[in-house]
């Protein structure tokens, strides 16, 4: 039953994705030269090894601001519009870092990516589309210094309620809600902010949702006053390597490994839930990196006692064999208590 609900949630997003595909085909008849492109930067991360930048060149979209009283049809149209993007493939993108300019081109879907070993002190970069006159300054998040700890958190059902235990509520939330009506898990924004310590410990958010929803998520995070941090999402599509959505396990583990490579001296606190495979993914990360680096795994129970007890037994064995600190909890207060017991908060 639980697997069916998760599948249906993805199915709801697939409906919106299909609308986006139809729109994408229509864009071949829309002259791009008449559209005003922007460089929508999803990640601008500063780390000890340099800078990571990821974004998309796409036509400027002007959408009405959401209101709590918006009806379901208005919310559905706004949510579906996240997929109606007019991308600019092979666009020239210039990134100014201090006194250096790096030039890249967007790929066939408009995405661009930069990994650079920037050495000097820097707080922001400038992104410029010279062929279109667009220019914007983008602040960096993260830390150039080797920080002692990094926070990595899942999003759905860990920070943000999706209603996954109720099929009707899940579909209503996914298709007919907006950034003002989405509910945050009580106490989690405050807990993450407290761990963040004003930027001392960088925060990274990982979700299998597609990049089309990045700005939607960021609006929710700002409303909840969650710390600005790196964001790991997925690129949906039909390729020889994947059917629509990439593997949840592969994506989440690759995200952890990426952050671990950036902050090689840091330990980790991993937040997740038991609706999918966060416990298994995090347990494997602990086995790979050891309990000295993975300081705590905290899993919110949302799938009932049967699943919670299964994870507890797995975590007991994990602790016995690898010395890990991993717990299943019912709410943020239990998470807080566990972190305090280990002097991590």
Shape: globular
Order of helices and strands: HEEHEEEEEEEHHEHEEEHEHEHEH
Strand order of the largest sheet: 11-10-9-14-15-16
Mean pLDDT: 84
Largest sheet geometry: 6 strands, parallel
Rounded to an integer in angstroms, the radius of gyration calculated over CA atoms is: 20 Å
What's the total count of β strands? 16
**Unreliable residue stretches:** 4-9
Instruction: Tell me the helix content.
Output: 25-40%
Task: Give short descriptive properties of this protein.
345 residues, alpha/beta, six-stranded parallel beta sheet, 9 helices, 28% strand, globular
Structural features, described:
- With 345 residues, the chain is α/β, with parallel strands linked by helices.
- The protein has helices at residues 2-26, 72-81, 167-176, 188-196, 214-223, 248-262, 278-289, 305-322, 332-341, and strands spanning 37-47, 50-59, 92-97, 100-105, 111-116, 124-129, 134-139, 141-142, 149-154, 203-210, 230-234, 237-239, 242-244, 267-273, 294-300, 326-329.
- A hairpin with a 2-residue loop joins β1 and β2.
């Amino acid at each position: 039953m639980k697997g069916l609900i998760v599948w249906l949630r993805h199915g709801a997003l697939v409906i919106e994705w299909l609308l986006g595909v139809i729109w994408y085909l229509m864009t071949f008849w829309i002259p791009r030269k008449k559209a005003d492109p922007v460089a929508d930067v999803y990640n601008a991360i500063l780390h000890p090894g340099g800078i990571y930048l990821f974004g998309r060149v796409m036509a400027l979209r002007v959408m009405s601001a959401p209101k709590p009283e918006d009806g379901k049809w208005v919310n559905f149209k706004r949510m579906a519009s996240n997929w109606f993007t007019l991308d600019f493939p092979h666009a020239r993108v210039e990134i100014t870092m201090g006194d250096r300019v790096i030039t890249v081109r967007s790929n066939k879907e408009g995405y661009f990516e930069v990994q650079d070993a920037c050495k000097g002190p820097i707080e922001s970069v400038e992104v410029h589309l010279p062929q279109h006159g667009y220019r914007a300054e983008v602040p960096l998040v993260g830390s150039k210094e080797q920080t002692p700890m990094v926070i990595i958190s899942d999003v759905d059902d860990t920070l943000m309620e999706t209603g996954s235990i109720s099929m009707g509520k899940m579909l209503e939330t996914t298709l007919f809600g907006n950034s003002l009506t989405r509910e945050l898990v009580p106490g989690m924004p405050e807990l993450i902010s407290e761990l963040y310590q004003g930027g001392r410990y960088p925060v990274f958010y990982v979700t299998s949702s597609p990049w089309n929803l990045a700005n939607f998520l960021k609006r929710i995070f700002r409303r909840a006053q969650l710390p600005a941090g790196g964001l790991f999402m997925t690129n949906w599509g039909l390729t020889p390597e994947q059917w629509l959505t990439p593997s949840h396990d592969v994506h989440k583990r690759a995200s952890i490994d990426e952050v671990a490579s950036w902050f090689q001296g840091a330990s980790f606190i991993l937040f997740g839930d038991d609706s999918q495979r966060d416990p298994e993914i995090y347990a494997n990360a602990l086995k790979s990196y050891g309990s000295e680096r993975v300081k705590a795994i905290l899993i919110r129970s949302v799938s009932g006692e049967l699943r919670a007890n299964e994870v507890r037994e797995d975590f007991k064995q994990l602790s016995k064999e690898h010395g890990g600190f991993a717990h299943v909890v019912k709410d943020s207060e239990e998470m807080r208590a566990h972190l305090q017991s280990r002097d991590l908060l």
